Amino acid sequence: MIARHLRLYLHLVRFSFARALELRLDFVFRILMDCLYYAVQLAFFGLLYRHTSLLGGWTLDQMIVFTATFLLVDAVNMTVLFSNLSIFPAVVSKGELDPILVRPVSALFFVSFRDFAASSFVNLVLAGGLLAWALHRYPGDLDPARLLAFAVVLGIGLVVFYVIEVSFLIPVFWLDSGNASWELFHQVAKYAERPVQIYPQWLRRFLVTAFPLGLVVSLPVQVLFEGLSIERALHAAAALAGSLVFLRWFWRKGLRAYGSAS
Amino acid sequence: MTFRLFVTVAGLRARWLLTHRGDFWIGTVVALTVQAGLVYSLWSSLFREAGATTVGGYTLREIIVYLLMVMVAGRVVRGTGRTEGTFAADIYDGSLVHYAVYPTHYFLFKYAERVGEMLPGLVQLALLLPGAAALGGTDTVAAGGGTLLGGLVALVLANALYFILFGPVEGVAFWAEGVWSLVFMSRYVVTLLGGGMMPLGLFPAWAREALYWSPFPYLFDRPVNLLLGRVPVGEWWSGCVVGAAWVAALSLATHLVWHHGGRRYTSAGA
Question: Could you report the predicted ipTM of this complex, rounded to two decimals?
Fold first, then answer.
């Protein structure tokens, strides 16, 4: 079953590249756009650190690693998820979910991953390069074990981010339009763009437990700088398991409320 | 375009935006609440760790008020409807040809709509401004009737400047198959250099000097600081002159791009 989904995904990626390269100028513009976005994000923190040596207990070098990690998460989102999830409300409201539901693959997999934004893939590579540069210039000690732990916890953070993003869209099964919840997601997702330790204690607790946005970027970077403790490992594992269980339940609940157009 | 037609178009647009009043106010309140949490957390952390009472000439209270005001004033500057990308959309979907038979110039019509989009934002600003000015005004320049009027004039100028800034950018749609990336690039640059992410007082001195001659400070930083009573009247005048000069220059650039682009434009149906 996993192999079948993987084969399907590789075909979808190939089709997406073929489609994206038909519009070459737009392809180039999108790359330039994301490069500028990265520059603006780094410039923002560069300007802040003109006035302080620490922010959230982190130096500028650490903040550059954090920002590069966040930009990588954003690049993955833009490449793999955004173009699919942004049209999900329209897919549901127009009844276009019907043909997807009868296919012999997971409907959630199909609606989440069918389009691969090929033009953003180059930016994904750039974001990865930016993170590699940030890690290379970091003056602290980063041994291979920590880098591996960072990669694993970041992978978990990406899954948690995906679950949160889809969870904000599932209410479209009950509402007339998913635009309000989609807009709300984009507002609250900004809390993942800052280190979780800058927030007040009560908000920090909320962002690492009930609404685990703080686990998407902050936890992997903390693991990178401070190491993977048993507590952090269990926290990440619990967040992953809890998120997937919640998503499975919420998605099925939404599908039961879906009124087919057929 | 007659003045009466201009007012009618602006009024229709404002009424259309306020049709869904619940969405309009709930969206603003939610966005403001989320942004307030982010702004307070980030800047109080910075002030605490810097051990400073002022940063770039702002206290913590003043920076928070500034950034929340930028958010609300931004809805006046950008408009509260679908703002960037409308020119390009008209080119791509062929509706640009409709304006060939309208008794008005395309950009004047669009500007009338943008003025209408500004009005709901002004209502929100009017509700928030008294409290914000009381919290954010400095001791050197008190926020009063004069600075309030100056700030409103600066906001109207900023609205016109933001409107025409995208004219040349979106005119690229006559040649390219997609320009939304260019629009977003412009928006990133405008937001950072216009003081949308932090007051320009936190930029290095050389950057502030260079930006003075650009159109960007007159979009967010200057109008909001005027409304908060932080800018003397003398600076207001010189800023208005620079901002107005940029509106004229960008209007010329827009005219040139659209004149050349319009020559190669074809559309099916009307």
Answer: 0.87
